[in-house]
Amino acid sequence: MDNLFSVENKSVVITGGAGVLCSQMALALAQAGAKVCILDLKIKAARSLCNRINSDGFTAIAKKTNLLKKEQIQDALKMIINKFGSIDVLINGAGGNKKEATVSKDKTFFDIDARALQQIIDLNLLGTLLPCQVFGKQMAKQQSGIIVNISSMNAFRPLTNIAAYSAAKAAVSNFTQWLAVYMAMNFSESIRVNAIAPGFFLTEQNRYLLTNEKSGKLTDRGKRIIEHTPMARFGRPDELIGTLLWLISDASKFVTGTVVPVDGGFNAFSGV
């Protein structure tokens, strides 16, 4: 039982690893004994996080990677294999939304530029598919590995104003289930694919929707979210760690193809 949730010496790659939520994942996994590789376009932030982890006596490396360019992901895989010898876990954390693809008082859905819609679809869906191709192929060769995608509450309940993001995250959840079946049936039962669907956590991508930039107070949207969250608050980044440790450890050896909400009860609340 002592080793049930252990991630000791696991080789873990985290895309978007310098972001608010994924940086907490990187810190927690490194402190739990995993060897962490952070892939992010924001290389200064990624290296700063690695320096923090390494200075505490743990292991982390970073690489600037555009997840929409397969050759860059392949280069990252080569670096990880060279440094760590294998890839045990892939966490697809890169994603997000942008104002340009969001409905507002001044912009209807019909006014959103196709390029903005495409950017959000590419960032969230293609940015998950391509790493799964590259790292999943290595896992198929090894006959083992774990993939955790980051979906969203939008995949369960499409929220107002963010059509492209909701559609992309719904696709991520569907793809998670598809890939879980594909890997288990064609390669190994020891390759598992699951997803976490966070509820509402304040990040750089959604802060402008949930809080007022000048006052810092909740927007009307932020207030409605809190009203529909039984726990009556936003989540804290560290509150994703327990679910993550469960999904990438032996504690969930018979779990694949699931999308786990971590949402303070938002998805269960009917409002009546």
Word description of this protein:
With 272 residues, the chain is of the alpha/beta class. It is 42% helix and 14% strand. The chain contains 8 helices and 7 strands. The protein has helices at residues 20-31, 43-55, 70-84, 114-142, 163-186, 207-210, 220-227, 241-248, and strands at 11-15, 35-40, 59-64, 89-92, 145-150, 191-198, 259-262. A 7-stranded parallel β-sheet has the order 3-2-1-4-5-6-7, with helices on both faces. β2 (35-40), α2 and β3 form a beta-alpha-beta unit. α3 (70-84) packs parallel to α4 and α4 (114-142) packs parallel to α5. The radius of gyration is 18 Å and the shape is globular. The protein starts with 10 loop residues before the first strand and ends in a 10-residue tail after the last strand.
SSE blueprint:
Elements: E1 11-15, H1 20-31, E2 35-40, H2 43-55, E3 59-64, H3 70-84, E4 89-92, H4 114-142, E5 145-150, H5 163-186, E6 191-198, H6 207-210, H7 220-227, H8 241-248, E7 259-262
Parallel strand pairs: 1-2, 1-4, 2-3, 4-5, 5-6, 6-7
Helix pairs in contact: 3-4, 4-5
In short:
This protein has helices at residues 20-31, 43-55, 70-84, 114-142, 163-186, 207-210, 220-227, 241-248; strands at 11-15, 35-40, 59-64, 89-92, 145-150, 191-198, 259-262. By secondary structure, it is of the alpha/beta class. The longest helix has 29 residues, at 114-142.
Structural class: alpha/beta
Which value, in Å, is the CA radius of gyration?
18 Å
Question: Count of helical segments?
Answer: 8
Apparent shape: globular
Low-confidence stretches: none
Separation of the first and last Cα atoms: 42 Å
Instruction: Output the helix-strand order.
Output: EHEHEHEHEHEHHHE
Query: What percent strand?
Result: 5-15%
Q: What is the arithmetic mean of pLDDT?
A: 94
Spatial strand order of the main sheet: 3-2-1-4-5-6-7
Tell me about the largest β-sheet. 7 strands, parallel
Strand count: 7
Helix content: 40-55%
